[in-house]
Design goal:
One of its GO terms (molecular function) is metalloaminopeptidase activity. 36% of the residues lie in helices and 16% in strands. The strands form 6 sheets. A 3-stranded mixed β-sheet has the order 1-2-3. A 3-stranded antiparallel β-sheet has the order 6-9-10. A 3-stranded antiparallel β-sheet has the order 7-8-11. It is globular, with a radius of gyration of 24 Å. Bound molecules: glycine and manganese (II) ion (2 copies).
């Protein structure tokens, strides 16, 4: 039986959960869940609604009401509390947190916001979501394994266009058991990869370029985040292989640092990655200062947490040492501009290698280990590739 069938999710649009914490002890709180009312007309057009009756059975919450009643309860809870923590949507704090709520709820919240100290609920939720439980890890592992197998399949095929590769990869995520893609895939042929979040995916591949792919599936609400770069031709050119191996060496060394016993933070691992990349590049004749490495050749960070969101728990301090059962990405890259400051042979090459990594006490565990990344393995998949 798949894990998803044993878990109960409330994913219904326009639902609201209120938690009123009365005193500083864990048990002392009141919960109220608001669900859209049953409505045979709306359900005929838009699909099934859980409704209050079913909700009580499924969610084990006594106080379940229809969502039009929410503003009254928000007012009541609001009058009784000292501080309000609020989130309606996933996303970054710079988005208006109230903006996406239905009008009447939004007005109530704005009213409360003007009267009470008001803070993001992420402050409370992100620390709770940082260390993953066994069942969370098994969802993350499943997303990683399904996605890794999909990568292996597409790496062994030739595609004429970026869009075809993207479509086949997403198809395989879903056919493998993922519910959806975790985010819009990046499928960037050749120099399109110089744009870090390239998602147009509408160009044709050129022979003997590389393709940079950043994509992953979602399983049971949990995501995986993978990047791989491979040749569009029958194998690596010497220039592609040298640069690829340099990034891979950095990536593997950084993965080794993902243990609680090492006691390093993501910020510190990022620092190490820039130093390591500078050294690796020197070995192959690319000389850049540390600031050129960090601002020009490798302008993003080594990684981030993953979980329910692709950039999970983003309000956590990136200077905190990694802890056992945190899950992070390790994703160094290189993006060599079309600029004669850099050797001609390297210009226009873009490479990112990203794995989803479970932090262990003494050893990290790479959840995405089924996704090919060694030069030999990729070379052999490409040598036997077919349309
Ligand atoms: N796929 C987004 C990222 O790697 O952060
Ligand atoms: Mn990532
Ligand atoms: Mn990614």
């Amino acid at each position: 039986m798949s894990i998803i069938k044993t878990q109960i999710w409330c994913l219904e649009p326009d639902s609201i959960l209120l938690i009123l914490k009365e005193r500083d002890v864990f048990e002392n709180y009141k919960l109220a869940l608001f669900l859209p009312p049953k409505n045979s007309y709306a359900e005929k057009w838009e699909g099934f609604r859980t409704g209050v009756e079913n909700g009580r059975i499924l969610f084990h919450i006594e106080n379940i009401q229809e969502n039009w009643e929410a503003p009254f309860v928000i007012e009541e809870f609001g009058n009784r509390c000292k501080r309000v923590f609020y989130n309606t949507q996933r996303g970054y704090p710079y988005k208006d947190p109230v903006g996406s709520s239905p009008d009447v709820v939004r007005d109530k919240i704005r009213d409360l916001q003007s009267k009470k100290p008001f803070r993001s609920a992420n402050e409370l939720l992100h620390p709770l979501r940082t260390i993953k439980s066994e069942s969370e890890i098994s969802c993350l592992q499943r997303a990683a394994s399904i996605s890794g197998n999909a990568y292996r399949e597409v790496m062994a095929k030739d595609f004429l266009e970026e869009n075809q590769l993207a479509t086949e990869l997403e198809y395989r995520f879903k056919m493998g058991g993922c519910q959806r893609s975790a985010y819009v895939p990046v499928v960037a042929g050749g120099r399109n990869g110089l744009c870090i979040h390239y998602t147009a995916n509408d160009d044709a591949f050129q022979q003997n370029d590389m393709v940079l792919v950043d994509a992953g599936g979602e399983y049971g609400g949990y995501v995986t985040d993978i990047s791989r770069t491979w040749p569009t031709g029958r194998g690596f050119t010497p220039a592609q292989r040298d640069l690829y191996q340099a990034v891979l060496n950095v990536q593997k060394k950084c993965i080794d640092l993902c243990t609680s016993s090492a006691g390093l933070s993501l910020a510190r691992i990022h620092y190490e990655s820039a130093v390591l990349l500078k050294e690796e590049l020197k070995q192959i004749g690319i000389y850049g200062s540390k600031s050129e490495i960090e601002d020009v050749l490798y302008p993003h960070s080594i990684g981030h947490e993953i979980g329910l969101e692709i950039h999970d728990c983003y309000s956590n301090n990136s200077f905190s040492p990694l802890k056992k059962n945190q899950i992070v990405t390790i994703e160094p890259g290189i993006y060599v501009p079309l600029n004669n400051r850099w050797p001609k042979w390297a210009q226009g090459i873009a490479i990112r290698i990203e794995d989803s990594v479970l932090v262990g006490e003494q050893e990290p565990f790479v959840l995405t280990k089924d996704t090919p990344k060694e030069v030999k393995e990729i070379q052999s998949l490409r040598e036997s590739s077919e349309l």
